[in-house]
Design goal:
Its cofactor is [4Fe-4S] cluster. The protein is α/β, with parallel strands linked by helices and about 325 residues long. The protein contains 9 helices and 11 strands. It has a single domain, classed as TIM Barrel, CATH 3.20.20. The strands form 2 sheets. It has a 9-stranded mixed beta sheet, with helices on one face. Strands 1-11 form a two-stranded antiparallel sheet. The structure holds iron/sulfur cluster (2 copies). The site of one iron/sulfur cluster has 12 residues, from loops.
């Protein structure tokens, strides 16, 4: 079954889609050099501050531009088992990693997720769980309340609310996705969980105005999230690997006033278990789980090398984020 045929999938194109010409052939082809022959930027791992565990791509939704193409039937990344995750937690502990992030798919669909989350907190890590706060999460209310009581703000849930309007959110996430997400957010907030929201901007939408609209929504709904705090309301740039974007050269950093230390692969990695592979492996980041050039090895020790920024997501999402590095 295709993702679009999934029950409750959005009927039309995403309201957040990137409007840009197709990516020309020849770009992002060589890890060392860009299409124009310049030296491609790369990023060393400075310290593994956050280790992401991908719990599997299965999801109760099939959002229009889900970068990982999750759906109720896509198990290209299988459920990460508790046993398979433990060696990575051991390694992360030895490295002094602060935070374990969980993403999917929808993490609460993985039957071994709750024990894994508990193990993570028991070991003293901060835990960050990305969820849509819908039925799969609500099935685990009792276990979540017990974790909140025991670990308090060591556990944070970051809930996707793609837009501050129901139309924007459901245009991306499908009909009848707004109400359950709002109920889930109200439940988390009402029970005092450490809470964040991941949102997006429509093309041309002004960030300050969007934050004001989110703030009004949160006030109306009794959701305790500071919409002015970029760490609590995270507004992400859009991604589309088929759309044209500039490649990132070593010269871009100074032009943009940015540093390789600013991008996620300087401080994080993600464990993925690909279907058909005997064991999980480590990808450079959360955004590129399938590409062999971004497969870093089967342990955190192996995965500590430099990452060549040889993918459109490196440019559009991480480095440019709406800026341009042409001088
Ligand atoms: S809820 Fe998240 S993982 Fe699931 S389809 Fe939507 S964007 Fe993808
Ligand atoms: S998309 Fe590229 S630049 Fe961004 S974190 Fe991943 S590998 Fe690094």
């Amino acid at each position: 079954m295709s993702r679009a045929a999934t029950r409750n999938a959005p009927a039309g194109p995403s309201p957040f889609r990137v409007e840009a010409p197709a990516l020309p052939r020849g770009k992002f082809a060589d890890p060392q050099r860009t299409a124009t022959g310049e030296r491609r930027a790369s990023v060393p791992l400075s310290a593994l501050e956050t280790l992401w565990l991908n719990t599997g791509t299965l999801c109760n939704l099939a959002c229009a531009t889900c970068y990982i193409e999750s759906s109720p039937t896509n198990d290209a990344l299988v459920y990460l088992s508790h046993a398979a995750a433990l060696p990575f937690l051991d390694e992360a502990q030895a490295l002094g990693t602060r935070e374990i992030g969980f993403t999917g798919g929808e993490p609460f669909m993985n039957p071994e997720f709750l024990p894994l989350l508990e193990e993570t907190l028991k070991r003293g890590f901060d835990a960050l769980v990305l969820s849509n706060a819908m039925k799969p999460m609500r099935r685990h209310e009792t276990a979540l309340l017990a974790l909140r009581a025991r670990y308090g703000t060591k556990l944070t849930l970051r809930i996707s609310l793609d837009h501050h309007t129901q139309a924007g959110h459901e245009g991306e996430r499908g009909p009848r996705s707004w109400g359950p997400a709002m109920q889930g957010l109200r439940w988390l907030s009402g029970h005092g969980f450490s809470l964040a929201v991941a949102g997006r901007l429509l093309p041309g939408e002004n960030e300050a105005e969007a934050r004001a609209h989110y703030a009004a929504l949160f006030a109306r709904e009794g959701i305790a999230v500071g919409a002015g705090d970029p760490a609590r309301l995270v507004l992400f740039p859009e991604m589309d690997e088929s759309a044209d974007i500039a490649e990132i050269t070593t010269g871009c950093w100074s032009i943009l006033g940015k540093s390789p230390a600013d991008v996620m692969c300087a401080t994080s990695r993600m464990v993925v278990h690909r279907k058909g592979e005997p064991a999980p492996r480590v990808a450079a980041c959360t955004l590129i789980p399938h590409h062999s050039d971004f497969d870093m090895g089967d342990s955190l020790a192996e995965a500590s090398g430099e990452v060549a920024l040889n993918h459109p997501h490196c440019a559009r999402f991480c480095v440019l984020g709406g800026a341009s590095c042409s001088a």
